[in-house]
From TrEMBL:
PROSITE patterns: PROKAR_LIPOPROTEIN. This is Carbohydrate ABC transporter substrate-binding protein, CUT1 family. SUPFAM superfamilies: Periplasmic binding protein-like II. It comes from Micromonospora pallida. Residues 1-21 form the signal peptide. Keywords: Signal.
Length: 428
């Protein structure tokens, strides 16, 4: 299959951490040295600290290359396109480059390894993240870090307005936002991302909860269905009618979070992974009044995204795939998953969320909201395509139009036509 560029064009210098002595070149790939490429992340730091234990147990040696996201993309761009075998285990983003990697056959088929390994308990992984690391019914990755969309809210403002609990439906969210806003001049009822591309991920939970999706069961664009149009109108209307005064249409999470943490909004929908920005007194003026709840239900129920932000895969060109799998068995196994979660890294295994040890470091209501989100979560928060950034620009336009009061239904029709053309072009 023709190999396409991954992301970026310049190969950044790799920061290689030789944890144990090893040889170089392809000969090392067939040896007891497993070469693992990781991104700069808390998960990676935790794994590196635990590596001596794995090396002792397995008799293998591990060589880690750790890079920033852009450098990682550049590394993959060069090596995967060249068919290099000197990558064994790869940490990658399933929703950003997963389809590209899988369709270009960069990722080894792990189906037999994952499903025949009883000790690994692949069935313990949540359905949503597994959906995102599966391509054409083949397991091509193992999810290790997850995110879910939850509702952040101000306990004090709800109490002041006479509400004894946060909203459980989108209708209640709108009603409570309006009441709290009326009772507190200068405070918006609701805030969330507004940027055309940035908002797509958080809008996705609204789309699913209204019964829609970016594509239908046959793979055709579906952002102009009645359900999708209702979701666009709701999300945009909530921000237009109850959002911050003179709300901009280019806010990403940092700007929206700042409004919430400065005490200028009552409700905020966002990824649970960012919660410490709201609960840390050094970052938030409302840290002692923040509560968390499961994503409110729409006409189709509560269907927030439940996604793997990072996963582990094996380079299909690797000559060391059996030993690479041994590393994944350990790094994504139950013991390490629990240790990571206790360190504040939300995992993809159901067992760690059911284990009190696994939720002890999270605020109690956040742990409950997250657990609820994993039950009905959808495994993607953006279109599952190769050119993700371009797709987000297309399907995000009706969000902006709805916020600014334009005809969002007509905008959805235009976006659907453009998105279908995009899908047709990508399929060529």
């Amino acid at each position: 299959m023709r190999r396409r560029a991954v992301i970026g064009t310049t190969l950044a210098a790799a920061i290689t951490l030789g944890l144990t002595a090893c040889g170089g070149g392809d000969d090392a790939a067939a040896s007891n040295t497993v070469r693992v490429t990781l991104v700069n992340h808390v998960w990676s730091e935790n794994i590196k600290k635990a590596l001596p234990e794995f090396e002792k147990q397995s008799g293998l040696k591990v060589e880690v290359t750790q890079l920033g996201e852009d450098q990682l993309s550049d590394q993959y761009n060069v090596k995967l396109n060249a068919g290099s075998s000197d990558l064994d285990v790869m940490m990658y983003r399933p929703l950003q480059e997963g389809k590209l990697f899988a369709s270009n056959k960069y990722l080894a088929d792990l189906t037999d390894k994952a499903k025949s390994d009883g000790a690994f308990e692949f069935g313990d992984f949540q359905a949503g993240p597994v959906q995102a690391t599966t391509h054409e019914d083949k397991v091509v990755g193992v999810p290790i870090i997850t995110e879910q969309e939850v509702l952040y809210y101000r306990k004090d403002l709800l109490e002041k307005s006479g509400f004894t609990a946060p909203p459980t439906t989108l209708d209640q969210l709108k009603a409570q936002a309006a009441k709290v806003e009326a009772d507190n001049p200068g405070v918006a009822g609701f805030v969330s991302r507004t940027g055309k591309a940035a908002a797509v991920t958080q809008f996705s939970s609204f789309l699913y909860s209204f019964g829609g999706d970016f594509v239908d069961a046959s793979g055709k664009a579906s952002v102009n269905t009645e359900q999708a149009k209702q979701a666009y109108a709701y999300y945009g209307g909530l921000l237009r009618e109850h959002g911050p005064e003179n709300v901009s249409t280019d806010m990403s999470w940092s700007e929206a979070m700042a409004i919430f943490t400065q005490g200028k909004a009552a409700f905020y929908t966002e990824a649970n992974s960012l919660y410490k920005n709201a609960t840390d007194p050094a970052k938030s003026k409302v840290s002692d009044t923040v509560g968390f709840a499961a994503f409110p239900a729409g006409p189709a129920g509560s269907k927030p995204y439940n996604i793997p932000s990072w996963a582990l895969g094996i380079n299909d060109a690797s000559k060391n795939q059996d030993n690479a799998w041994k590393f994944i068995q350990w790094a994504a196994g139950k013991e390490q998953a629990l240790a990571q979660q206790k360190a504040g890294v939300p995992g993809a295994r159901a067992s760690v969320w059911a284990n009190p040890e696994g939720t002890a470091t999270f605020p109690k209501d956040l742990a409950e909201a997250t657990t609820a989100s994993t039950a009905n979560g959808v495994g993607h928060d953006r279109p599952l395509v190769v050119k993700v950034a371009q797709a987000r620009e297309i399907v995000g336009q009706p969000i902006v139009d709805a916020i600014t009061g334009k005809d969002s239904a007509a905008s959805a029709d235009a976006a659907n036509e453009a998105f279908q053309k995009f899908l047709d072009d990508e399929a060529k």
